[in-house]
Amino acid sequence: MQEKKTNKCKYRFSNGKGTDVIFDSKGRILNAKGFGLLMWSRSENIDRELIGKSVDELAKMLKEHGGSKEIYYNFEIQVHLELLKSMLENA
Protein backbone atom coordinates (compact mmCIF):
# COMPACT_ATOMS: atom_id res chain seq x y z
CA MET A 1 0.00 0.00 0.00
CA GLN A 2 1.23 3.48 -0.71
CA GLU A 3 0.86 6.57 1.42
CA LYS A 4 -0.52 9.86 0.21
CA LYS A 5 -0.87 12.94 2.42
CA THR A 6 -3.33 15.76 1.93
CA ASN A 7 -3.05 19.26 3.32
CA LYS A 8 -5.59 18.47 6.09
CA CYS A 9 -3.21 15.90 7.64
CA LYS A 10 -5.14 12.91 6.40
CA TYR A 11 -3.37 9.74 5.39
CA ARG A 12 -4.45 7.50 2.55
CA PHE A 13 -3.21 4.02 1.78
CA SER A 14 -4.12 2.00 -1.28
CA ASN A 15 -2.88 -1.33 -2.54
CA GLY A 16 -3.95 -0.65 -6.15
CA LYS A 17 -6.16 -3.75 -6.09
CA GLY A 18 -9.36 -2.22 -4.72
CA THR A 19 -8.41 -1.79 -1.07
CA ASP A 20 -8.22 1.78 0.14
CA VAL A 21 -8.30 3.39 3.59
CA ILE A 22 -8.16 7.01 4.73
CA PHE A 23 -7.08 7.92 8.27
CA ASP A 24 -7.40 11.25 10.07
CA SER A 25 -4.48 12.92 11.84
CA LYS A 26 -5.10 10.81 14.97
CA GLY A 27 -5.11 7.47 13.13
CA ARG A 28 -8.89 6.98 13.04
CA ILE A 29 -10.48 5.56 9.89
CA LEU A 30 -12.49 8.11 7.90
CA ASN A 31 -13.21 5.87 4.92
CA ALA A 32 -12.49 2.27 3.97
CA LYS A 33 -13.02 0.25 0.82
CA GLY A 34 -12.29 -3.34 -0.15
CA PHE A 35 -11.60 -4.87 3.26
CA GLY A 36 -14.06 -7.67 2.58
CA LEU A 37 -11.36 -8.97 0.21
CA LEU A 38 -8.69 -9.01 2.93
CA MET A 39 -10.39 -10.50 5.96
CA TRP A 40 -13.00 -12.98 7.04
CA SER A 41 -16.18 -11.19 8.03
CA ARG A 42 -19.81 -12.16 8.24
CA SER A 43 -20.76 -8.57 7.60
CA GLU A 44 -21.38 -7.31 4.10
CA ASN A 45 -20.83 -3.79 5.46
CA ILE A 46 -17.34 -4.35 6.89
CA ASP A 47 -16.01 -1.21 5.21
CA ARG A 48 -18.63 0.97 6.92
CA GLU A 49 -18.07 -0.80 10.24
CA LEU A 50 -14.39 0.14 10.14
CA ILE A 51 -15.13 3.89 10.12
CA GLY A 52 -14.11 5.42 13.43
CA LYS A 53 -11.81 2.56 14.42
CA SER A 54 -8.13 3.25 15.03
CA VAL A 55 -5.23 1.94 12.98
CA ASP A 56 -4.35 -0.23 15.99
CA GLU A 57 -7.84 -1.77 16.03
CA LEU A 58 -7.66 -2.46 12.31
CA ALA A 59 -4.27 -4.13 12.73
CA LYS A 60 -5.71 -6.36 15.47
CA MET A 61 -8.69 -7.26 13.27
CA LEU A 62 -6.41 -8.18 10.37
CA LYS A 63 -4.22 -10.25 12.69
CA GLU A 64 -7.23 -12.20 13.98
CA HIS A 65 -9.41 -12.32 10.86
CA GLY A 66 -7.11 -11.62 7.92
CA GLY A 67 -7.27 -13.95 4.96
CA SER A 68 -3.60 -14.81 5.52
CA LYS A 69 -0.68 -13.89 7.75
CA GLU A 70 0.88 -12.18 4.76
CA ILE A 71 -2.01 -9.69 4.65
CA TYR A 72 -1.47 -8.84 8.31
CA TYR A 73 2.33 -8.56 7.97
CA ASN A 74 2.03 -6.36 4.87
CA PHE A 75 -0.43 -4.10 6.69
CA GLU A 76 1.90 -3.78 9.67
CA ILE A 77 4.92 -2.89 7.54
CA GLN A 78 3.35 -0.82 4.78
CA VAL A 79 0.49 0.91 6.60
CA HIS A 80 0.57 0.70 10.40
CA LEU A 81 4.22 1.57 10.90
CA GLU A 82 4.27 4.17 8.12
CA LEU A 83 1.16 5.89 9.48
CA LEU A 84 2.56 6.03 13.02
CA LYS A 85 5.84 7.39 11.64
CA SER A 86 4.01 10.10 9.65
CA MET A 87 1.86 11.01 12.64
CA LEU A 88 4.99 11.45 14.81
CA GLU A 89 6.65 13.61 12.17
CA ASN A 90 3.58 15.87 12.02
CA ALA A 91 3.07 16.11 15.80
Describe this structure in words.
This protein has 91 residues and is of the alpha+beta class. It has three helices and four strands. It has helices spanning 46-50, 55-65, 69-89; strands at 2-5, 11-14, 20-23, 29-33. It has a four-stranded antiparallel sheet with strand order 1-2-3-4. Strand 2 and strand 3 (20-23) form a beta hairpin. Helix 2 (55-65) packs antiparallel against helix 3. The chain is globular. Residues 2-7 have low confidence and may be disordered.
N to C succession of SSEs: EEEEHHH
Approximate strand percentage = 15-25%
Strand order across the biggest sheet?
A: 1-2-3-4
General shape: globular
Mean pLDDT: 86
Helical proportion?
40-55%
> Largest sheet at a glance?
4 strands, antiparallel
Secondary structure: number of strands: 4
Span of the ends, CA to CA: 23 Å
How many distinct helices? 3
Helix and strand content put the structural class at alpha+beta
Runs in which pLDDT lies below 50 for 5 or more consecutive residues are: 2-7
* Rg, alpha carbons: 12 Å
Task: Produce the secondary structure layout.
Blueprint: E1 2-5, E2 11-14, E3 20-23, E4 29-33, H1 46-50, H2 55-65, H3 69-89
Antiparallel strand pairs: 1-2, 2-3, 3-4
Helix pairs in contact: 2-3
Concise account of the structure shown:
By secondary structure, the chain is α+β, with helices and mostly antiparallel strands. 41% of the residues lie in helices and 19% in strands.
